[in-house]
Design a protein that fits this description.
ATP binds at residues 13, 172-173, 214-220. The chain is α/β, with parallel strands linked by helices and 259 residues long. The chain has one domain: Carbamate kinase (3-Layer(aba) Sandwich), CATH 3.40.1160.10. 44% of the residues lie in helices and 18% in strands. The protein contains eleven helices and ten strands. It has helices at 16-19, 28-43, 55-62, 72-96, 108-112, 114-129, 145-149, 152-162, 199-204, 217-228, 244-249, and strands at 9-14, 47-52, 100-106, 132-138, 167-172, 177-178, 190-191, 193-194, 233-238, 256-258. The strands form two sheets. It has an eight-stranded mixed β-sheet with strand order 3-4-2-1-5-9-10-8, sandwiched between helices. Strands 6-7 form a two-stranded antiparallel sheet. Helix 3 (55-62) packs across helix 4. The protein is globular, with a radius of gyration of 17 Å.
């Protein structure tokens, strides 16, 4: 049963396909609504962390390309250009709602190295203590594994693990978890709750159906498993209407809930 009214620390991950229109341009209206919701949750006394993709998507638009870069160096260049642009947009919206934010760029080396891992935990904890909303992304400009894997889903789970979050919310471009890809199978059945991620559940997951996103349901299941290992609940839900986060916290059956 969903009982999320008392959660205190929430990690919200948003993917590129949720942040953009189908043409790849940023959906500023949706970004502002998301920022407003997160700011309001912070005002209500929650601790909030945002894990945001989108730097490469913003970067290739600024570069004047008509398609997502194909090579790793091009993707790194796009990330280097897009990350400050994306942060500027977030900062402007958070400032509008009188919220402080901070940028944190991480790699898997930080997760794997004990000292760097501890430093990252201390930084995140201090930011939360100071009522600052951290905005986390992979450091795509200096490493390539994440670019190839599309691993912000997994990164968000590690962040949830590091801060002992009560809830991980993965915003995506479909309503939640289905028994097959709804983009390919009109008869795919929606699954509202998953109490245990079994091999059968894993076999139902597919890859990203979007040209803009790089992850997929498989990486979201991995994230849910990582979160579950430390007692963090996970919701996979459609990010089209960020206001639905309120309804999720009130216990409404929105998205797929992983206990």
């Amino acid at each position: 049963m969903r009982n999320l009214k008392e959660v205190e620390t929430i990690v919200v991950k948003v993917g590129t396909s949720t942040l953009t229109y189908e043409n790849g341009r940023l959906n500023l209206r949706r970004i502002e609504i998301l920022v407003r919701v997160l700011s309001d949750l912070q005002n209500a006394g929650k601790h909030v962390i945002l894990v945001s993709s989108g730097a490469i998507g913003v970067g290739w638009q600024v570069m004047g390309l008509d398609h997502r870069p194909n090579t790793v160096p091009e993707k790194q260049a796009a990330a280097a250009i897009g990350q400050p642009q994306l942060m500027s947009i977030y900062e402007n919206f958070f400032r509008k709602y009188n919220q402080k934010n901070a940028q944190i760029l991480l790699t898997h080396m930080v997760i794997d190295d004990p000292q760097m891992h501890e430093n990252a935990i201390n930084t995140l904890s201090a930011l939360l203590d100071y009522k600052v909303i951290p905005i986390v992304n992979e450091n795509d400009t200096v490493v390539t594994d994440e670019i190839r894997v599309g691993d912000n889903d997994t990164l968000s789970a590690y962040i949830a693990q590091m801060v002992k979050a009560d809830l991980l919310i993965l915003l995506t471009d479909i309503d939640g978890f289905y028994n097959s890809n709804p983009s390919c199978n009109p008869d795919a059945k929606f699954i509202s709750e998953v109490m245990k991620i079994t091999k059968e559940i894993e076999s139902m997951a597919g890859d990203s159906a979007s040209d803009l996103g790089t992850g997929g349901m498989r990486t979201k299941l991995i994230a849910a498993k990582i979160a579950h290992s430390v007692g963090t609940k996970t919701i996979i839900m459609n990010g089209e209407s960020p206001e639905n986060i309120y309804r999720v916290l009130e216990g409404d059956i929105i998205g797929t809930y992983f206990d």
